[in-house]
Write a structure and sequence with these properties.
The protein is of the alpha/beta class and about 550 residues long. It has 2 domains: about 375 residues, Metallo-beta-lactamase, Chain A, CATH 3.60.15.10; about 70 residues, no CATH class. The chain is about 30% helix and about 15% strand. It has a 9-stranded mixed sheet, covered by helices on one side. A 6-stranded mixed sheet has the order 8-11-12-15-16-17. The chain has a two-stranded antiparallel ribbon with strand order 9-10. Strand 5, helix 2 and strand 6 form a beta-alpha-beta unit. Helix 3 packs antiparallel against helix 13. The longest helix has 30 residues. The chain is globular.
């Protein structure tokens, strides 16, 4: 149990603060699902649900997501036994960890063309980003690119499987790491299992989950564009919801990172490390076996001098009993794989021992130099482009509570290109002009982007603009799951540190207690935070 949070039984939700605003973050694992309660003037709640999913590879995902949806049904029932009702469902983007629940708990949702039913969740209206609009030509183009890239990555995975089986350990290890990284990214689209790289992948797919979500709306589905007039309702006087992203620009959608605006420079290496590790697809690794063979373009050779090459030639001359040109010696050793017995090069540029395999001959595995599989080198880049471009289609919303009032920020998994597009937006509301810096300055709630990933929360365009003394942050992340997938920088410590300083310690992760990580300390929240095994809920005082 986390320190100082009020602990309750998830099956018996705590009494409601009838006039207050509540934000509930579910703890299903590594994924997003939020339930926001906004009070109407008569005290009746207006319910806003944002996403419903958990990452591929989660243990027992179906029962977990069914428990989440069942809790939403109980919480949003207008009267006992009538079934739950959510006024607006927001689906931020097409990633499995945001939409899997629509497939895994499908039987608990009531289709939009049916009457509300006991034990099921009905939805008044469904919101998507414009990128999901079948009538939008750029949206269709992006969808085609996504589909083609997914199929291409599946083909890469199949080729890597064959290459790994035929390669020696020093080459198979980095190739396997690349295959695992590709599988992890394809998992965001609901693809998993033994058939992942074959014709029939096991597991759900985001497309089918998105179709279920569309079918739930009792009204025409709304596809938001950035900068449109904010949403308002007579049921919620003074409240406005501003659409910030995704940008209507393919280049911005494809832009995943920014050197100046992301926090990774402080504590993280290249973005690809999160999925593919630091070693290249082929070539040198840090293994002792591979270290026994000197590669000509290895870091230890780049500084080699003619003196070093002469030393190598002299060593080979001694071995073979005759003069050898330095260049011939170099290529004989590194490319032709013959003409040398056991040698030791100990000059400054060369410090390796090469052992013979038969008298008078050295055979060095040079298959890594073949170019017939060189196209595989681009696989990590294509995979990351797919992941980033899809994250950048996230619908981003800012909820303003009254003119000049507090703001709640829900950024989905928006990455750099999405974030950097927002400063071009402004809205004329009566006599005032609302801008994104203005909205950020009044933010009292921030939903951490993409589970705290390095390129999904900006610096000067993000955290540094959140200047309200009442700011709190919820980050939907489960570190044990992230570590299991080798995402060791999720969440990024630099972002946690910046948010902790800005919020005066009011940062909560969705994960439950785990002995491998320090227990979360919620004392900075006071008694505003409710903790159950199923969710964390933050309560805001009546306005």
């Amino acid at each position: 149990m986390a320190k100082t949070a009020r602990k309750t039984d998830a099956a018996s939700p705590p009494p409601a603060d009838e006039e207050g605003i509540r934000v509930r973050m579910y703890r299903q694992g590594l994924g997003d699902c939020f339930l926001v309660r906004l009070p109407r003037p008569d005290g009746a709640p207006f319910w806003l649900m944002i996403d419903c999913g958990v990452i591929v590879g989660t243990k027992d995902p179906e029962p977990k997501m069914q428990a989440v949806v069942a809790d939403i049904i109980r919480t949003t029932e207008r009267k006992p036994g009538a079934g739950g009702f959510v006024d607006v469902l927001v689906v931020t983007h097409e990633h499995w960890d945001h939409v899997s629940g629509f497939d895994q708990a499908k039987e608990l949702f009531c289709p939009g063309d049916q009457k509300q039913q006991a034990g099921k969740l009905s939805i008044g209206e469904v919101w998507f980003a414009w990128t999901e609009d079948p009538g939008n030509e750029l949206a269709r183009q992006l969808a085609r690119e996504r589909k083609d890239t997914i199929e291409g990555l599946k083909a890469v995975g199949l080729a890597l499987g064959s290459a790994v089986a035929a390669a020696p350990p020093q080459q198979s290890e980095p190739m396997q790491r690349t295959a695992d990284g590709i599988a992890a990214i394809l998992g965001f689209f609901g693809l998993e299992g033994p058939g992942l790289f074959g014709a029939a992948a096991v597991g759900g797919k985001t497309g089918s989950a998105m179709a279920v979500a569309r079918s739930l709306s009792q009204k025409p589905v709304r596809y938001w564009k950035p900068g449109e007039a904010p949403w308002s309702s007579a049921d919620l006087p003074g409240l406005r919801i501003y659409p910030l992203g995704p940008p209507e620009n393919a280049s911005a959608i494809r832009r995943a990172d920014d050197r100046d605006e992301t926090y990774h420079a402080f504590t993280a290496g290249p973005a690809a490390d999160a999925f593919f590790g630091a070693s290249p697809l082929r070539g040198r690794t840090d293994s002792a076996d591979w270290d026994d063979v000197l590669q000509p373009f290895d870091a230890s050779v780049r500084g080699a001098t003619l003196k070093d090459l002469d030393a190598a030639a002299k060593a080979i001359e001694t071995s073979v009993g005759g003069p050898v040109d330095a260049t011939d010696a170099f290529f004989a050793k590194h490319y032709f794989g013959e003409r040398a017995t056991e040698l030791t090069f100990a000059s400054p540029g060369f410090a390796r021992t090469v052992t013979r395999t038969e008298p008078g001959t050295i055979r060095v595995d040079q298959s890594w130099r073949r170019i017939d599989t060189s196209w595989l080198d681009m696989a990590p880049e294509f995979a990351l482009q797919l992941d980033g471009a899809t994250n950048n289609t996230s619908l981003v919303l800012a909820i303003e509570l009254g003119d000049g009032g507090p703001v709640f920020l829900f950024v989905g998994d928006a990455q750099a290109g999405n974030w950097l597009s927002w400063d071009a937006l402004s809205w004329k509301i009566g006599r005032r002009t609302v801008t994104v810096p203005d909205l950020f300055a009044r933010a009292v709630f921030y939903k951490g982007g993409h589970h705290g990933s390095h390129n999904a929360t900006m610096k000067s365009r993000g955290i540094e603009r959140m200047t309200s003394g009442d700011l709190v942050a919820f980050i939907p992340v489960d570190r044990p799951t992230a570590r299991m997938k080798h995402w060791d920088r999720m969440p990024l410590q630099g972002i946690l540190d910046a948010l902790t300083e800005r919020t005066k310690g009011r940062v909560a992760l969705s994960e439950v207690s785990n002995p491998d990580f320090p227990e979360q300390d919620f004392k900075a929240f006071g008694d505003r935070l409710i903790e159950t095994d199923l969710y964390l809920e933050l309560r805001f005082p009546p306005r």
